[in-house]
């Protein structure tokens, strides 16, 4: 990727003095219980040759997205924001329109909900959620899927039901890398990739593997699966910073992604590390 500006299609920031991140619990996540700001991230991206990023929501509160939009407006690094709004509300279309009118509202590129935390494996198929997804599409936004493997069948049905909406699968659908299992995840992710309105992020791999002993070889079967299923033109790199720091530095996360895609041509790698994200998120 020498000479090209890389796009990081997935990272977060948070300030615990502004609001708690209530998902950061237990000893394994304790290293994340501190502030991670854009000031912390910028030296990492600069050193790595990353020139644009997509800032992604972390918690389901309405105040976070306006803050992220304002941050994007002030930043030369953030090219787009994937925010949150309650898809189950009957006025979701109005809520999306109001977000677009806020300072930095032009940076809103997508919506995400923490579906992985929903006990109903078919939450995406609820009538109220489907109505919300229709509103997301009508607003010209994409929908990021943060799900667990058992929720992938519902993702397939949702994408089939909303061909007008682009669905972006975060973190490959969180495959069980640590246990080295491929199925049924691989078959389910191929079913999702068979739909033309789906895209996948090459992100979150290092934290699904053993965080202390992972190797690129451990990640390769999962990266190879999505490379074959989606192809480079529907795959995009994301660091998942700062969550990735549980297992790897920013540079190590990028290095792993570059090694996993070393067999691609220069133009194919340009898709994964820049062009797909620019196109999908209209950066």
Automatic annotation (TrEMBL):
Domain of life: Bacteria
Transmembrane segments: none
Signal peptide: none
Record InterPro entries: Amidohydro-rel, Metal_Hydrolase, Metallo-dep_Lactonases
Pfam families: Amidohydro_2 (PF04909)
Amidohydrolase-related domain sequence ranges: 7-282
Gene3D superfamilies: Metal-dependent hydrolases
Similarity field: Belongs to the metallo-dependent hydrolases superfamily.
Protein name: Amidohydrolase family protein
């Amino acid at each position: 990727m020498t000479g090209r500006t890389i796009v990081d299609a997935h990272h977060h920031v948070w300030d615990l003095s502004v609001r708690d991140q209530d998902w950061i619990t237990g000893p394994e996540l304790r290293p994340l219980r501190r502030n991670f700001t854009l000031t912390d991230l910028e030296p990492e991206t600069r050193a790595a040759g990353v020139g644009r990023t997509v800032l992604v929501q972390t918690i389901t509160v309405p105040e976070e997205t306006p803050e992220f939009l304002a941050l994007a407006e002030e930043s030369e690094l953030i090219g787009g924001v994937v925010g949150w709004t309650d898809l189950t509300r009957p006025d979701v279309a109005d809520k999306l329109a109001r977000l677009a009118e806020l300072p930095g509202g032009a940076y809103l590129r997508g919506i995400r909900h923490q579906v992985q935390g929903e006990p109903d494996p078919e939450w995406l198929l609820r009538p109220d959620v489907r109505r919300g997804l229709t509103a997301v599409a009508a607003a010209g936004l994409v929908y990021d899927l943060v799900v667990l493997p058992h929720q992938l069948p519902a993702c397939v049905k949702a994408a089939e039901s909303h061909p007008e909406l682009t669905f972006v699968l975060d973190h490959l659908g969180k495959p069980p890398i640590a246990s080295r299992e491929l199925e049924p995840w691989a078959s389910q992710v191929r079913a999702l990739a068979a739909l033309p309105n789906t895209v996948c992020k090459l992100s979150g791999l290092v934290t699904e593997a053993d965080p202390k002993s992972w190797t690129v070889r451990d990640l390769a079967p999962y990266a190879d699966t999505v490379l074959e299923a989606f192809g480079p033109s529907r795959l995009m790199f994301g660091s998942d910073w700062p969550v990735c720091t549980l297992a790897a530095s920013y540079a190590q996360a990028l290095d792993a992604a570059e090694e996993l895609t070393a067999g691609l041509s220069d133009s194919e790698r340009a898709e994964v590390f820049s062009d797909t994200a620019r196109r999908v998120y209209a950066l």
